Amino acid sequence: MEVRENSSAWGELRASAVFDEVLREDLAKATLVWVQEVAALLGQVRPTAPASSLAAAAERLTALLEGLSMRWLSGGIGIRHAQELMRGAIDAELAGLRQD
């Protein structure tokens, strides 16, 4: 239940930011922190990958997660399918980082 509430709140925040410039700035900062955290985690797995590649992979993964979350919350896909898609995306991003 906590995951659903958190995901729903994040989606509502992002939707509200469309109409509120101040909220948009705060959300951009929070998103940047999230992307940096994910990039750092990816860097633990692929320590030789360039920072720019880690950041790009993290941005793609966080954006994908937001989209999958909205589809899950709106009943478009099941949670297990969303998790499988996310795992596949993580594997693909890590494989791409291996070449850097």
Molecular structure report:
This protein has helices at residues 2-17, 21-45, 51-73, 79-98. The protein has one domain: Tetracycline Repressor, domain 2. With 100 residues, the chain is mainly α. Helix 1 packs across helix 2 and helix 3 (51-73) packs antiparallel against helix 4. It is 84% helix and 0% strand.
Helix content range of the residues, please? over 70%
DSSP strand content: under 5%
Query: In DSSP terms, counting alpha (H) and pi (I) runs of 4 or more, how many helices?
Result: 4
Overall 3D shape: flat
Order of helices and strands: HHHH
Q: Which regions contain 5 or more consecutive residues with pLDDT less than 50?
A: none
Architecture (CATH level 2) name = Orthogonal Bundle
The CATH topology assignment is Tetracycline Repressor, domain 2
Question: Count the strands?
Answer: 0
CATH class: Mainly Alpha
Q: Report Rg.
A: 15 Å
How many independent structural domains?
1
The N- to C-terminal Cα distance equals 39 Å
- CATH homologous superfamily? Tetracycline Repressor, domain 2
Q: What class would the helix/strand composition place it in?
A: mainly alpha
Largest sheet: none
Q: What would the average pLDDT be, to the nearest integer?
A: 91
Structure summarized in a few sentences:
By secondary structure, the protein is mainly α. It has helices spanning 2-17, 21-45, 51-73, 79-98.
